[in-house]
């Protein structure tokens, strides 16, 4: 294709709520143990939103940091896209609350529902707008307050998730000079809808006293099935992004922080060493759409990305959905 504009990442930011919930805290609620959670997932603690703190509040903090690092003002934004499955409310979109609070007066705003793949789906959407010349400056956020949708009596799900937000400012490469998006991949398989779902509150099963009594307002998952899918999908996505390059060209893989054992098994399947992977799941748990942008922000701020090296971002989640991005830093 000709005349496409190269797109890069101009700045990143992230935010997690101050409230820390440790595995020992969860031991008091369900039949679990710190040892089991650490061994099976790598998670040691997660952050939960305070009462009254909603998804857009986390987005706002992460967005401000990303805009500051990109040296861009909110009025210069053409797009605000929020990947989330735990919005402030069903209507309007969380992106509209963020747009208003930032003062992004020229921007279009919408949410993307792709669960844990939400940030990468949003990033690819922004990249498509900018590369086609339909927008110049986009704010892309992955954010969740999943703690509101956890059944704190269901030990298979309540130990996994945490709250947080990560953001990236995406611009034409000529404006930012780094983080070039070289490849993108997105996919879905709706036959796996039952693996991770929240049944209540939509048009099929609107909230009633009965749906609340049956617990349909909570996230349910079939962890074992997701586990098997995840190992194969993560390694396939990384291989797809790395095709044609040597392992030495790859600076870092920043994967969805789904479960340390899944990430380890995916790297084993590829025959890649774990020092190619960034992990922060011990601190935050699985923050769904927020894991990749929080991790990206942390590696950028820690100076872990060498200029010129390749970075692979990858994620998968409810839907089932998946996505991956290859960046040149
Ligand atoms: O980002 C996308 C969303 N994420 C996911 O969908 C999660 C993906 N799956 C996983 O991360 C893992 O499958 C889990 C962490 C959910 C579970 O780990 P696992 O190694 O797959 O355990 P399992 O489900 O096979 O369960 C093993 C045992 C069972 O007991 P029995 O039948 O062997 O006696 C479970 O009942 O562990 C038991 N178990 C627990 N024990 C203590 C399940 N959850 C817990 C728990 N604490 N929290």
Please give the count of helices. 12
- Overall residue-averaged pLDDT value: 97
> What count of domains describes the coordinates?
2
Strand order of the largest sheet: 1-7-6-4-5
Any idea what the CATH superfamily of the largest domain is called? Thiolase/Chalcone synthase
Q: Which spans have pLDDT < 50 for at least 5 consecutive residues? A: none
The fraction of residues in strands falls at 15-25%
Q: Which geometry do the CA atoms define?
A: globular
What binds here, in terms of ligands, is: oxa(dethia)-CoA
What is the percent of helical residues? 25-40%
The CATH topology of the largest domain comes to: Peroxisomal Thiolase, Chain A, domain 1
Query: What's the Cα radius of gyration?
Result: 19 Å
N/C terminus separation: 23 Å
The largest β sheet comes out as: 5 strands, mixed
Q: How many individual β-strands? A: 13
**CATH-defined architecture of the largest domain:** 3-Layer(aba) Sandwich
**What structural class do helix, strand and pairing data support?**
alpha/beta
CATH class of the largest domain: Alpha Beta
Query: What pattern of helices and strands is seen along the backbone?
Result: EEHHEHEHEHEHEHEEHEHEHHHEE
Provide the descriptors you would attach to this structure in a database record:
Peroxisomal Thiolase, Chain A, domain 1, binds oxa(dethia)-CoA, alpha/beta, 4-stranded mixed beta sheet, 2 domains, 329 residues
Secondary structure layout:
Elements lengths: L6 E9 L4 E3 H5 L6 H8 L3 E3 L7 H16 L8 E5 L10 H9 L5 E5 L5 H14 L6 E7 L10 H4 L5 E9 H4 L3 E9 L7 E2 L11 H5 L6 E2 L1 H20 L7 E6 L4 H11 L10 H4 L6 H11 L8 E8 L3 E8 L1
Parallel strand pairs: 4-5, 4-6, 11-12
Antiparallel strand pairs: 1-7, 2-3, 6-7, 8-13, 9-10, 12-13
Bound molecules: oxa(dethia)-CoA.
């Amino acid at each position: 294709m000709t005349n496409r504009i190269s797109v890069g990442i101009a700045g990143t930011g992230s935010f997690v709520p101050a409230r820390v919930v440790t595995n020992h805290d969860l031991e008091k609620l369900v039949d679990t143990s710190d040892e089991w959670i650490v061994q099976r997932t790598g998670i040691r603690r997660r952050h939960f939103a305070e009462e009254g703190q909603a998804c857009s509040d986390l987005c706002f903090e992460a967005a401000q940091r990303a805009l500051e690092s990109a040296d861009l003002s909110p009025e210069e934004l053409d797009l605000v896209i929020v990947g989330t499955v735990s919005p402030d409310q069903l209507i309007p979109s969380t992106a509209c609350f963020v747009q208003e609070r930032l003062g992004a007066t020229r921007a279009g705003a919408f949410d993307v529902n792709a669960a844990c793949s939400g940030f990468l789906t949003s990033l690819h959407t922004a990249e498509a707008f900018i590369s086609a010349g339909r927008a110049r400056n986009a704010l892309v956020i992955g954010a969740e307050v999943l703690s509101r949708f956890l059944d704190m009596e269901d030990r298979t799900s309540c130990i996994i998730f945490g709250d947080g937000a990560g953001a990236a400012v995406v611009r034409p490469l000529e404006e930012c000079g780094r983080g070039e998006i070289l490849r993108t991949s997105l996919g879905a398989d709706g036959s796996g809808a039952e693996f991770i779902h929240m049944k209540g509150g939509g048009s099929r099963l609107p909230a009633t006293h009965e749906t609340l009594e049956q617990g349909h307002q909570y996230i349910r998952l079939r962890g074992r099935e997701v586990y098997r899918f995840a190992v194969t999908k993560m390694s396939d996505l990384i291989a797809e992004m790395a095709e044609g390059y040597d392992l030495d060209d790859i600076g870092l893989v920043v994967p969805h922080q789904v479960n340390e054992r899944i990430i380890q098994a995916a790297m084993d399947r590829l025959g890649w060493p774990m020092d190619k992977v960034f992990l922060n799941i011990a601190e935050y748990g699985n923050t769904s759409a927020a894991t990749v942008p929080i991790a990206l922000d942390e590696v950028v701020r820690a100076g872990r990305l060498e200029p010129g090296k390749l970075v692979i971002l990858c994620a998968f989640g409810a839907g089932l959905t998946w996505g991956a991005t290859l960046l040149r830093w």
